[in-house]
Design a protein that fits this description.
Radius of gyration: 53 Å
Helix content: 40-55%
Largest sheet: 7 strands, antiparallel
Strand content: 15-25%
Number of helices: 9
Number of domains: 3
Shape: rod-shaped
Structural class: alpha+beta
Distance between the termini: 52 Å
Length: 484
């Protein structure tokens, strides 16, 4: 099941099914408990009615049990013998005794044997001095409840039995067991259960249908995004954008993020195309010049310009190295993690520049350690590019200073040239950008040095910015974090 819509529908249906099942079970348990409680109450009422008759010394065979068809009654004495039962009761379980036949002595007599005198008047009539019958009592405690079965008039059913004790005026303690049928409880529970089961499937069908429709409506923008992305892939037109829903939900944010990604991708591809075009253009000049010189030399060896051919070859080699380094940087190549002393690296780079038209002044404390972590070759390339740029634009001064700054090391390369206009201070770090269009390509370079320098600084966790120098020219500041 790969469809998100189908998965959401199935998940919602299962959740609702589990919730309905749990709620239904809880409802049935509560309903059953209430119905059983009502049966217990009915059994208790019936038992107390019979116990009240016994407390008034009503003879066993005179007990009013005719109205107890739905409430079978069994009366036992202190010895557990059956002394009275409901009419039609032929079998019983769960009550005081398994028998339903009263003992002979009890079925023929009364609760108070003849001649017994418990009223204290000495006349043996079982009455008090006022001539009224004697009176016992009914236990007021909560009755004991049990569950069993009884057969009345040939019909067997399950009952809840309540046991209530009654004491006659002669001190005889009897226990009355009266039952209340569980038939109504079970019929009601079964009816409710059947109704719930009958309504469960339609309810789940409604939930599944609504979830399917709502999910389809919610995912419709996603399908629009997918189809547009497929069209962009097929046409390779990165200028197209996916539709953005007017809502403010996750799908709208997904569409906006997708369009932002397409914008970045379009810019990257365009930059790559421009890079390839510029690189081809830059390579064409030295290659064409070198070919011309070689063709002339082939026809007229005496006209071979060896220094010019060497210069073109060197320029071609430098440009190829720059392009290769940029390709590695674009591929995400991580710099080597080597701890080096930046001051020593700067002095070493300056010491190798013996042919510069302007001597480089270095100001770096000899006793201070400016340790950074990174690639020695790439950082040397950055310093060399900055010095090359300063040499091309300086009038009479190129200065380098090193100092600790903001938890890192700052290398500043200054010149006294024309400087960089403020609105061009970011553009000069783009590839193949040269501000002085009148400068020849041989003198001005290919416009890759500053772009390489900033990329390398960024990959080392640092920054490269340009400001106005105190001497009036440009001041390039390379900041790198200290190692460790």
């Amino acid at each position: 099941m790969r469809s998100v819509r189908a998965q959401a529908t199935l998940g919602a249906t299962l959740v609702v099914a589990v919730a309905l099942a749990a709620a239904g079970i809880a409802l049935l348990l509560v309903l059953r408990a209430n119905l059983i409680g009502q049966a217990d109450l009915q059994a208790e009422v019936a038992a107390r009615e019979v116990a009240g008759q016994l407390a008034l010394d009503t003879p066993y065979d005179a007990l009013d049990l005719d109205d107890e068809e739905d409430h079978p009654v069994q009366v036992t004495d202190e010895e557990g013998r059956v002394v009275a039962v409901s009419p039609g009761l032929t079998a019983i379980t769960g009550a005081g005794a398994p028998g339903v036949t009263p003992v002979p002595s009890a079925s023929a007599g009364a609760t108070a044997p003849p001649g017994d005198d418990d009223d204290g008047d000495g006349d043996g009539d079982g009455q008090d001095d006022g001539g009224r019958p004697g009176r016992g009592e009914v236990a007021g405690d909560d009755p004991e409840i049990s569950e069993g079965s009884a057969t009345v008039d040939g019909r067997k059913a399950d009952y809840r039995f309540a046991a209530v004790e009654a004491t006659t005026s002669t001190g005889v303690t009897l226990t009355v067991y009266a039952g209340a049928p569980l038939t109504d409880e079970r019929e009601t529970v079964n009816t409710v259960r059947g109704a719930m089961l009958a309504g469960l499937l339609p309810m789940l069908a409604v939930v599944a249908g609504v979830t399917w429709l709502v999910t389809r409506r919610a995912l419709r923008p996603v399908e629009g995004i997918r189809s547009e992305m497929a069209a962009i892939t097929a046409s390779e037109d990165l200028a197209r954008r996916v539709p953005e829903p007017a809502s403010r939900d996750e799908i709208a944010r997904l569409a906006r993020t997708t369009n932002e990604t397409l914008t970045v991708l379009e810019a990257s591809v365009e930059r790559q195309r421009r890079f390839v075009a510029d690189a081809s253009h830059e390579l064409r000049s030295p290659i064409a010049s070198l070919r011309t010189q070689l063709e002339v030399a082939a026809a007229h060896p005496e006209l071979l310009d060896v220094p010019g051919a060497v210069a073109d070859t060197v320029r071609l080699q430098v440009l190829a190295a720059d392009l290769l380094l940029l390709a590695r940087l674009d591929a995400g190549e991580k710099p080597q993690s080597t701890v080096l002393e930046l001051g020593a690296l700067v002095r070493e780079e300056v010491s190798q520049r013996t042919g510069d038209r302007i001597a480089v002044a270095v100001r770096a404390p000899e006793d201070a350690a400016f340790e950074v972590s990174g690639s020695r070759g790439q950082l040397a390339r950055v310093i060399g590019n900055l010095l090359d740029n300063a040499e091309r634009h300086a009038e009479s001064l190129v200065a380098v200073s090193i100092a600790a700054e903001a938890g890192g090391v700052c290398v500043e390369v200054r010149d006294d040239g024309a400087g960089v206009p403020e609105d061009e201070r970011e553009r000069i770090f783009e590839r193949f950008v040269r501000l002085d269009d009148a400068r020849s390509r041989d003198d001005g370079g290919a416009g890759l040095g500053l772009a390489i320098a900033r990329d390398v600084a960024s990959r080392h966790g640092g920054t490269l910015t340009v400001h106005r120098a105190a001497e009036g020219g440009a001041a390039f500041r390379l900041w790198l974090p200290r190692s460790g």
